[in-house]
Design brief:
alpha/beta; 6-stranded antiparallel barrel; Rossmann fold; 3 domains; 5-stranded parallel beta sheet; Elongation Factor Tu (Ef-tu), domain 3; single chain; SH3 type barrels
Length: about 350
């Protein structure tokens, strides 16, 4: 079938990346349809928020921007209500993880359950007909040996494969990432050439508008507690364990003759444990919820590059099967701030091998 006969539904956020994705696909001859998901249900009370984010009262501005783009490009536009799904699948997950003393990754969960899940299903239910789904993620999809795989973006500084490791080869066969071979600078230039207002828009990495997680929790859950050293000596007070993460140094509100970092979050006793930098180092971890893209199963030991958070510089590690379908990861060189709840993603060269959720440090 010719490209011009193929229908592509593009997930629009109102930002520059998704906008340019729609333009590129239209220029290639696809029949493009714009869609945006509405996720903010009004329950989050943000006072004077200055940070733009995925979830918050400024969602209406983003929806209007997406609608205006579609009008400019003369393509259909649809809004899909995913407020309940976002609350049940993402907000609940974030709350439960923080209350358990873990650090969640809402972007990974949102991609897995909403953006590449409910959004497609509910769009079809609403009568939207499409062959492919496209987003503004910086990543590349290739077919090799009859299998669809995910590869890093050409622009290494913008690569977003870390957030996409939960996708399956089957899903990848119906997904397009138009920006995978472009740099961010090129994308902004394309946006400028089309007169898009989003061309010079500042980027946001925040999950919640304003950056404060407090509105997600009940007042009785925002319980203050002790900040202690490894011997249990009380050094200060914390303002609720959900405000802290492994490796955090700033904002602890304690004085010491040497820099102290959060090394453990003790949810059972409502304590934040701090220590020196050297005690942040870990030799490895156990991960669960494994998803593989290049193999059907992990049946032997592999030497892979491992990334334990988005800004982490991937490092050499030995990855091997562990009990109960889990994976054991041993670093060649101990790494800083391995954080339970965060995603660990494995690479073989430019190819995303798979990933999972860090369960515990070893």
């Amino acid at each position: 079938m010719e490209n011009r006969k193929r229908k592509v539904m593009v997930g629009l956020s109102g930002g520059v990346d998704s906008s340019v994705s729609a333009v590129l696909l239209k220029e290639k001859g696809y029949e493009v349809i714009g869609v945006t998901m509405e996720i903010f249900d009004g329950s989050l009370k943000v006072e004077g928020a200055v940070k733009h984010a995925c979830y918050g009262p400024s969602e209406g501005v983003d929806v209007q921007a997406a609608a205006a783009l579609c009008k400019k490009l003369d393509i259909p536009f649809h809004r899909i209500d995913l407020k309940m799904e976002f609350r049940d699948q993402v907000i609940t997950y974030v709350r439960e993880e923080y209350l358990e003393g873990r650090t969640p990754n809402p972007c990974v969960k949102c991609n897995q359950r909403l953006k590449f899940g409910y959004l497609l299903d509910k769009s079809r239910e609403a009568g939207v007909d499409f062959d492919y789904f496209a987003t503004g993620h910086y990543a590349r999809i290739e077919k090799t040996g009859g299998r669809y795989i995910l590869k890093k973006a050409v622009d290494a500084t913008k690569d977003q494969t870390y957030f996409l490791y939960t996708l399956s080869p089957k899903q990848l066969s119906h997904i397009l990432f138009p920006l995978g071979t472009y740099t961010k600078q090129q994308v902004r230039q394309i946006a400028l050439s089309h007169g898009f207002e989003s061309a010079n828009q500042a980027e946001s990495q925040d999950f919640i508008e304003g950056g404060d997680l407090s509105p997600l929790f009940k007042e009785e859950e925002l319980v203050k507690g002790d900040i202690v050293d490894e011997s249990g000596n009380i050094l200060g007070k914390h303002r609720g364990i959900m405000h802290y993460t492994i490796g955090q140094r700033r904002g602890l509100g304690i004085s010491s003759d040497r820099p102290l970092y959060v090394i453990r979050i003790d949810s059972k006793n409502n304590r934040i444990v701090v220590s020196t930098r050297e005690n942040l180092l870990s030799g490895g971890f156990i991960a669960s919820d494994l998803n593989l893209l290049t193999h059907d199963r992990l049946d032997s030991t592999y030497r892979l590059k491992t990334k334990i958070r988005l800004q982490h510089r991937e490092t050499d590690a030995t990855v091997s099967p562990h009990d109960g379908g889990k994976v054991k990861v041993l670093f060649d060189v101990p790494q800083m701030a391995v954080t339970p709840g965060q995603s660990a993603v494995f690479y073989s060269g430019e190819t995303l091998f798979g990933g999972g959720i860090i369960e515990r440090i070893i």
